[in-house]
Every structure is written in structure tokens, then in C-alpha cells.
Amino acid sequence: MTTTKTESRLPVRFGADSRVGVVAGGGRLPEAVADALEAQGARPYVVLVAGEADPAGPLAAHDHSSMELEHFASLVPLLKRNGVTHVVLAGEIKRRPRLSKMRMNFSLLATLPRIALELTLGDDGLLRAVLRYIERRGIKVVGAHEVVPELVAAEGCLTKAQPQKPDWRDIDTAREAAEAIGALDIGQGAVAIGGRVIALEGIEGTDGLLARVKDLRSHGRLAGRMRGALVKCAKPGQEARADLPSIGPNTVEMAHAAGLAGIAVEAGHSLVLDGPAMIERANALGLFVIGLPAKGSTP
Amino acid sequence: MTTTKTESRLPVRFGADSRVGVVAGGGRLPEAVADALEAQGARPYVVLVAGEADPAGPLAAHDHSSMELEHFASLVPLLKRNGVTHVVLAGEIKRRPRLSKMRMNFSLLATLPRIALELTLGDDGLLRAVLRYIERRGIKVVGAHEVVPELVAAEGCLTKAQPQKPDWRDIDTAREAAEAIGALDIGQGAVAIGGRVIALEGIEGTDGLLARVKDLRSHGRLAGRMRGALVKCAKPGQEARADLPSIGPNTVEMAHAAGLAGIAVEAGHSLVLDGPAMIERANALGLFVIGLPAKGSTP
Asked: Is 0.95 topped by the overall pTM?
């Protein structure tokens, strides 16, 4: 099993003549990244992906523009016009571009591997192709965890509640399953209850997974079973510069609604959004949130 | 990877002094087994598991009684009182017995491995323990596929529609995923669309999985994607005398509603219920149903 690349990179420092772009998908991560950059005195340039990032949300407070997914060919020129030297791809892109609507240019056509154009790759393969495409045009792609290292999940229990002995069985079982489906590039999350995996994440995402677990509580096979754990894992060999597993206050809220006792992520390979708010909420609800030692990590 | 045991057993023939019991869970399989036994001139004795088999359904036409899951200790005496020498465990048991309601006897307490009593085993481990428990008391456990070999899925395409080239990519990808989660004793089914696995079966079962795929059709990542395939696989090393993957007319109906192009199962390791009705329905809806050559089977 290969390791993820998170820990092999040092935090990025930006010079006076560099500017960071944030290509913003859905969720809270893009906002966290842009705000952290502002707080560091940098002036990020945000590209809101249409249909994913809210153009009327907090991201609009930054210097920004919007882009259709199908106009990806215009991304690099747009970033360059705005002096961007480094770019962070942050947030969820639920949609996949429709080829029929795609505005092509020769550069895009010539460079993106045909296989990526066919969009038949897993998320990770597609991401790598996009990253390579951008970097070959002279813009460096950095990971959210490099720009905002304070978002990276630390090792150890983050909450007052700690996993109990049966919870550890749930954590271990769910982690094994999350790793197995990660290796197949299917999803990042698994839920175990009573020592058994009962649900696996597909494209519905973690929120969808937890909503399902809530519904499954009435399933006969879970009768009388309490607790349970959600585990999210980076895929083995995952491109850490995009799509690291993340959790936040909403994950805690939904895990609680699903009757789970807590959440475990891999320390160093996962992002925690709105950390203080998340921990406060977990403590109020009595859930544990824990950063597990990463397996086979190469510091 | 070990092979399932389906093909290593010969069809069972019953002598004049033998009687076959059918422990009936949910679904259509128990009825198919009991009816086939009647058709063979045998007179099955049916034990309806309360809450799973319908006591007012067609099974009640056979010589029968009902049993609470928690009264499992009384199963062997009940079967013996009715002259049963061989028993088939057929159909789905969604519920797991509640220990607090369980009627114990010394025999059960002494014999069932403690680990099985704790109900912490996977389905397969628990089944094996139950099978062993029954056989040690002198009743032979036989598989539905041994009693009703005509239910076993044959190799090759069963329908007018055949998998197209992109369908084969879906079939191969979903099969790999179904085998992976099977190896972890999580579930039997996976759905791939556009060459990618988008949903995996947990305890919600195949119907739940297909209902979810139907909902996911509106997910951005599936925009413009047609077709897709459901693959069901026996777990590697699965106890074939219970819980073989099965499909039937309802599976076809739900796969169609989920927008899938067809269904693939492993030939020899899967059961087809109401075969003629299923094929007729698949042909009417234009779906393919195919029996894949079993991997590494030992004839």
C-alpha cells in the first residue's frame, strides 16, 4: 500500500511577487482557505466554479470571478491575467463537465490525455490530469493543507468523549473497509455499528452516507445496537493536493442524527473545517472525534 | 481467493425415510424451495421465522409451524418431532435475535461458540455456527441449490438484450468492487455506471441499493450518463448452503427503475427466483441478465 503525499511536503511560503488563486468548488473548504490566506496578508484570487460555489456567499468578498466547468480551458489564462502564480483546488466538484458543452481550445485538446477527456478515470486520475495540465502552463498547484496547515487533522482525541472499547472495534472494522473502497477509488467513508460495517460511501458522499445510516437504524439487523463509528480515509496514493477527506460541524451533526458514537479520520491526511465549532458541537452532543495515526506514513 | 462450495456438491436425493424441512425467512426463495420439493413428490415441513416469512402467504399451504428467532433452541426438537432429516435454510433473515429475549437451553448455551452468541460475527460466520449446531444434532443441512438445482444461475446471457461494450466495463468494475466488499463480509452487490462504481451494498440489501441508485441519477456526477450494471457476487469462501446471492423479477424491475442496462451474477453461485417471469420482464424492459463464468471454481 502506497502512502499519501501529505507529509512529504513542507508548508508553502509565498514571496512578494506571488499570488495564490483558489479554484472554489462546494462546501466550506474554499472559504476557509481564502480567509486563511487573507489572514496571512496574502490577497487570494478566487475562481468560483459555477453550480458548486455560491456566487453570493462569503467567497464573493474576495477578488473573484466565476467559471463554468466546461470553460476549464479559460482557467489558466484567467489566473495569469490576475497575476496568480500558485493555485489551490478546494472544495467539492459534484458535477462532471459535459463534453457536449465543453469549450475547447487547441492547448486543452492537445494536452489533456485522451483518457481524461473521456472522463472515464476515477476522481483521482482525473485530478492528476488537471493538476498536470495547470502546472505545465507555469502555475504551481498547492494543497489546501499546505496553505492552511492548521486545517490538517492532528493525531489523538480532539473531544471530551473518547472512543470506548467497542468503539475501537467499529473504528478498526470501518477503517479496513474505507481503505478497501479507497483502493478501488470508490469513496472515502465507511460506517460500522456493533463491530460490523453496515454502509459504504459511494458518490452520494459522506452526508448521503450518514443520512442513510440514520434511516437504517430501524433495520432489523441493527435492532438494539447503539453507537457505531464513521471512519474517513484518504485513498492510498491519493493526490493530497485535492480531495483530502474532510469533516466539519455538519459531519458531527449528521453522525449524531445517525446515532453514531463518533468519527475517526487519519491524522495528517484529513482536513478539519471550522475546527473549534466542530469540537464544541461534538462535546455538546457527546461524540468523539479522533485523529488516527496514519498507516505507513513517510514523514 | 478461495472458491465457494456450490459446485463441489452433488444434487441431493432423498430416500423414503427422509423428510426435508425448510426454515423460511423472507423473500421468494422459501416458497420456490417448498414448491419444488412438493413437485418432486416430497412433503416438506416448513418453519416460518416470525417477522420474516408471511404466515398468511403461500408457505402456509405446506405442513408448517412458526418460530420466533429467539426460540432458535426449539428448532431442532421441532424438526425432529416432525420427522425431518434434512433441512434447508432459505430466505432472508433481516433481524438478528435479541439476546435479552432469547430462550436459552443448556444445549444451545453449551454449543454455540461464545463468539456467535455475541452475534459479532459476519453473516457468514454466524451462519456456519448455526449450521454446525444443527448438524451436530443429527439433522443434515442442505443448500437450496442442492434441493432445487434448477434455480442455480446458468452461464451466459439469459435475455434477448446482451451487454454492450461499455456495459462490460461496468460489469468488470462492479464485479471487482462486489468481490472486495464480499471479502470483508459486508455485502454482495455493487453498481457501476460509466465505468465507475457509484454505490455499494451494505445491510440495506440489493433493493435498497437499487432504490439509492435511482435517487442518485440526479447527482451531478452522473449527468448525461446512461446505462450501468448491477453485479452480485457470492463472497469468497461463502457458505453456499445459505445466503447465496439471488435475483428475481423484482430485481429486474428495480434495476430498470434505477436506469441500469442490466444485471450480472456469477453462474453456479447465484440463484434465480421465478426465472421465466424474470426473463420475460427483462425482455419486456430491454435489460440484460447474464451469468458470468465463476472465477477459480473447482468443478
From this structure: no
